[in-house]
């Protein structure tokens, strides 16, 4: 979930908190957006839990029950914010490709244009 962290020096800062353990998620590549994937029709919205990778993610999958999917939180948040913030979706894809390189260390993850 999203909360506001208050800092005397910086004011209110939006942060993502793990829906399972309640601790702040500081690295979007080390966290997941876990979502329901069954019985969805066009236009339906699935419930999503934000969780640290590992035990928190496993618990999120259990709580949602049955068939679930997941995505790295960094990608999930970028795709969510793009239409709200007016961010070019092609820029999101570039970040997605960068994430692939960071995660797998493969230069070939970048599509040749
Ligand atoms: Zn957690």
Give a short summary of the structure.
By secondary structure, this protein is of the alpha+beta class.
How do the helices and strands line up, and which of them pair or pack?
Layout: E1 2-7, E2 11-17, E3 24-25, E4 31-36, E5 48-52, H1 55-64, E6 68-72, H2 73-85, H3 89-104
Antiparallel strand pairs: 1-2, 2-3, 4-5, 4-6
Helix pairs in contact: 2-3
The structure holds zinc ion (ZN).
Structural notes for this entry:
The chain is globular and about 45 Å long. The model is unreliable at 109-113 (pLDDT under 50). It is built from three helices and six strands; from the N terminus they run βββββαβαα. A hairpin with a 3-residue loop joins strand 1 and strand 2 (11-17). With 113 residues, the chain is of the alpha+beta class. Helix content is 35%, strand content 27%. Zinc ion binds next to strand 5.
List keywords for this structure.
single chain; 113 residues; alpha+beta; 3-stranded antiparallel β-sheet; globular; binds zinc ion
**Class per helix and strand makeup:** alpha+beta
**N to C succession of SSEs:** EEEEEHEHH
Overall pLDDT confidence: 85
Helix content: 25-40%
The value of Rg in angstroms is 16 Å
- Identify the overall geometry: globular
Side by side, the strands of the main sheet go 1-2-3
- The overall strand count is 6
Number of helices: 3
Major sheet: size, sense and barrel closure?
A: 3 strands, antiparallel
**In oligomeric terms, what are we looking at?**
single chain
Strand content: 25-35%
Terminal Cα separation, in Å?
A: 37 Å
Poorly predicted segments:
109-113
Number of domain units: 1
């Amino acid at each position: 979930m999203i909360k506001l962290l208050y800092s005397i020096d910086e004011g209110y800062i939006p942060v993502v908190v793990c829906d399972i353990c309640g601790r702040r998620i500081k690295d979007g590549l080390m966290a997941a957006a876990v979502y329901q994937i069954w019985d969805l029709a066009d236009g339906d919205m699935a419930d999503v839990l934000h969780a640290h990778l590992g035990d928190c993610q496993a618990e999120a999958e259990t709580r949602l029950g049955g068939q679930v999917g997941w995505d790295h939180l960094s990608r999930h948040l970028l795709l969510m914010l793009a239409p709200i913030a007016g961010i070019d979706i092609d820029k999101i894809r570039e970040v997605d490709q960068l994430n692939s390189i960071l995660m797998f260390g493969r230069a070939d993850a970048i599509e040749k244009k």
